[in-house]
Amino acid sequence: MNLEAFQINGKNALVTGSHRGLGAAIAVALAKAGANVGCHGRDPKPGAACDEIRAAGRKTFYFSADLTDSKLCSALIEETISKFGSIDILVNNAGTIRRAPAAEYPAEFWNELIAVNLTAVFHLSQLAARHMLERGGGGKIVNIASLLSFQGGILVPAYAAAKGGVAQLTKALANEWAAKAINVNAIAPGYMVTDNTTALRNDPVRSRQILDRIPAARWGEPEDIAGAAVFLCSSASDYVHGHVLAVDGGWLAR
Fold it and tell me: Which of 93, 127, 186, 193 has the least CB density, counted as fewest CB within 10 Å?
């Protein structure tokens, strides 16, 4: 085993939704593995990830955008290529969640979640892949799926539908681009300590129910995703295509 296969020195990456949480942890991990990393978020000001990337000796930038706007998806890819000269790695991490009973689920919640969690993933992947195909040499696209790519969840019909779509989109794109040396895979995080799970962690009944089912006996931390992300963005995963890798403390095995 050549451990250098896990290094991504000189590669240029974009991680959406990297202002904080899972995206920030992934962005910093990619920088420590050798990549220049562009960061994105809805917040107007950059988060701590950009400082950590610079501290690792890598280039970075921050782009604030609402990914429900397809024109901003295009601008984000263009900015990455303009700043770095290319895009070799795309991590589609940006996402949001809205909870409400299905019978009363507002149309605006549905439209927002499908736009951010699924449609933007397709637009960004399509734009990045066009650049990779035109340039030649391949690339890596990693989508952040969810346990709800496999399960239905409770009070989250739009999120479950979108994340199920992310898993299927990952496979569909892999089928088309694998022969072009573009790896398209996904990570399905388990129950992680992020903003999206605040409501669950603050509910003593649901929090205990969730924790009791996790074989690892703890909620995941953003850093628990880092190794999987580096693997799927490195040449160590060159023969991995269309896979949804669960990083869930054993949840799906229970």
Answer: 193
Residue type, 207: S
* Cβ atoms < 10 Å from Cβ of 31: 26
Summarised one tens digit per residue, pLDDT across range 59-100 is 999 999 999 999 999 999 999 999 999 999 999 999 999 999
Residue 88 parent element (H or E): none
Q: Tell me the domain boundaries of the chain.
A: 3-248
Tell me which of 62, 105, 159, 191 is the catalytic residue: 159
- In the chain, the N- to C-terminal Cα span, in Å, equals 32
Query: pTM here?
Result: 0.96
Q: 203, 110, 207: which is closest to 156 by C-alpha?
A: 110
The residue to which tokens 């892949």 are assigned: 129
Architecture of domain 3-248: 3-Layer(aba) Sandwich (3.40)
Amino acid of residue 10: G
Query: What is the phi-psi region of residue 243: left when phi exceeds 0, alpha when psi lies from -120 to 50, beta otherwise?
Result: beta
| 62 a catalytic residue | no
Single-letter amino acid, residue 186: A
Rounded to a whole number of angstroms, the CA Rg of the chain reads 17
Q: Can you tell me the distance from the alpha carbon of 151 to that of 124, in angstroms, rounded to the nearest whole number?
A: 25
